[in-house]
Amino acid sequence: MEVNNVELVMSAVAPEQYPTTGYPEIAFVGRSNVGKSSLTNVLINRRSYARTSSQPGKTQTLNFYNVEDQLYFVDVPGYGYAKVSQAERERWGQMIETYLTQREQLRGVIQLVDARHEPTKDDIQMFQWLAYYDLPTLVVATKADKIPRSKWNKVESTMRKGLGMTPDNPLLLFSAPQKMGKDAIWDWIETQAFG
Ligand code: GDP
EngB-type G domain location, by residue (predicted)? Predict the structure, then answer.
């Protein structure tokens, strides 16, 4: 999709705040700092797009971005902060569980993992949880430019094994500075969103 227009339409913590337009939705999940805003910026051809803070202690909301009046990108706040309280963790868990399990318009989830590291416990838990709920999931391993090409296969197999992926679960390598993987990610999004 050639994207010119993207607008943050809603920051929501509860279902009554979700947009009612009915466009298909693609959610983005991942550890904070994994490269989520960099990936979305590449997808929508922007240097930087309005991001509400993903800093610990700040309000954690689901952010709905209207993409060309055709779909929503839903930015799910990053998991894996060491510092958040148990209560905050639970509130976050509730909010995303409600969204991911109850949202009819949700067509797919892009889970970002850092290509340089083994998946974290949070990554594994998230992937397994998405699989349990049968949510179509694309795993995107970010920052591939930091890894020599000769090791890409190894990265993919480590990630697949670590997350417990099956051979038919899709995984793509991505690099924001090189825009590597952009078209393949868009293909997946359009297939999920529009069939
Ligand atoms: P977010 O917290 O998940 O939204 O992560 P950001 O998109 O803000 O990225 C976190 C840091 O990783 C920033 O310093 C980015 O410049 C860097 N980064 C993100 N994606 C890539 C990538 O594909 N390659 C490289 N080399 N750095 C990246």
Answer: 22-195
